[in-house]
Each structure stands twice: as C-alpha cells, then as structure tokens.
Amino acid sequence: MTGLRGPAQLGSAARSPGADGVPIIIDELRAVQSEQGYLPADALRMPADRLQIPLYHVQGVASFFPHFRLAPPPAVDGGVCADMTCHLPGAAALRSAVETHVNAAGHAGVVVRAASCLGQCDRAPAAAMNEAILGRLTSQSLAAHIDTAVAGGRLPGPELSPRRGPLLLDPYDGDRGRSQRRRTATAGLAALELS
Ligand code: FES
Asked: Are the C-beta atoms of 55 and 48 separated by less than 8 Å?
C-alpha cells in the first residue's frame, strides 16, 4: 500500500526539507535516474539519507510517478501515442504493425507500448523511442527507427520548425473571411470592455 501513496498523502516528514519536500525528492530521484537509468532499491536510500526523511516516503514518491523506473529499462523503449489525434490517423494499426515487425525481426529487449499525448498532435501519429520523439510516422518509418535504435544508431531530434500549410483541425479552413470577421469581432469586444 505504501507504494501507492501519492505526494498529497505523504506525511509532514517528507515535507521537512522546505515548505514542500516532494519537489526536492523528485529532483533527487531524477538525478539518480538520469545517472543510472532507473531507480535501484539501494539508490533510494541516498535521497532519504541526504534529506533525512524515511525511506518509505521516497519509495512512495518513486512509485507514484510513472516517469520513475523501479526496474532497468528495456534496450529500446517505444511508446506509440494512443490519444485521439494519433488514434484517428491509425496509431493502433501502426503499433500493431511494428509489434509484428519486432517479432519477425527477432529483436530482443524491445518494448512498444501505448503512450499518452506526446505534444506532437500536429505531427500525428507520433511515438517516443527511448529519448527521441518521432512524428508523421508510418509503419515503415517507425520500423526503421526501431531497427536503428536496436543497432545503437542515433534517432532524429525533435522537429522544431512550425508546420507550414493549413492544419487538419483548423475550423476556419477554406473560410478566411470568417476568420477575419472573428478577429474583428474579438477586437471590438475588447474595445468595448475598455471603454
Ligand atoms: S494525441 Fe498523439 S501526440 Fe498528441
């Protein structure tokens, strides 16, 4: 039960290093995970000792947040976004296809799971692969990224340039006049509120 305790349920001892100790515990855990790749049981003692709080408080925070790993990560950890914007252009089929590819290729240590929104909705369908965030995926391109990761290759960095052209979700697409009228009406309302 201790492992299910969240920050809100942590006792006052966990908050002792400052007004709210949980962010400090999180920072400590992130540092350990960044160094070791996960949080070994022994490593949880370091933040507990340094912050002088009970070990079970640190374990409570570590087990509450999905970001923290309590076991070594797989060699290739993939997450295909399953939220609506990625689901519509075929994320489920994408995930299924790459699972088939992983099995057919005999890749060991590869996990492809469902993930929540990765902030790439305008580049759907998207997936996370180890530390990389990938967008505009097809089953072929995602399979190629998995092959690259398995071989120890470098995955592409994030796309930072804004997307050009209309968005699929643009409600005023094809009616620029309506968009302009909406801006004019909003500006008019703002002027009325100021007067
Ligand atoms: S819904 Fe998939 S990246 Fe946002």
From this structure: yes
